[in-house]
Amino acid sequence: MNLLEEWMTDNAELFRYAGELSCMREKAERILLSGAASIFLAPLFRTIYPESTIIASSDDEEALNEVSESVSDIIKDDVPLTECEYKDIDIAVSVLAIETLETRELTSYLFSLHDALVPKGNLYISFPSTDKFVFSPMKEEKAWWDDGKIIKMKRYQGDDVMKALSMIGFDIKAAERDVLPDLGTVISIHAERR
Length: 194
Description:
Largest sheet: 7 strands, mixed
Low-confidence stretches: none
Mean pLDDT: 92
Helix content: 25-40%
Number of helices: 7
Distance between the termini: 38 Å
Number of strands: 9
Strand order of the largest sheet: 3-2-1-4-5-9-8
Shape: globular
Oligomer: single chain
């Protein structure tokens, strides 16, 4: 089991919006899971939506291969977040991914998620945030799932991301804040494309 997948299993309460999407949307023909953490939700989405096409998009080839062992019929797309371009998606999931993007890249990525979704399509996004009202630069931190790994990470304010989503064309349906000892504050947002 991948260390990230193991961490996600140990902190499953952070990903409750993934399961709650089935209450919001009875049917989903195409589901996009973008980012290394998101793709590990493929088995859950296969269970909830057994007939759906699931696209796993990440530039972590090892994680893509591991996920495809448990959900063999996923479509693997080995691309970074900044190159995600899809159409006719009913559900887009981007958990613990945007913190790897600089602000310009984030804006472009959010627009690409909006363009990928069908009208009334659902977006589930989560990210480690900052509670400070100051600019938070990209900096090196220990990976929360692997103390031996250093990653570059930028923490965004929850309000800023929600405002950006709203301006891009999303209606915020729900948002939650969790605090973890190893990751800090995590914001989870469920939004719907207008």
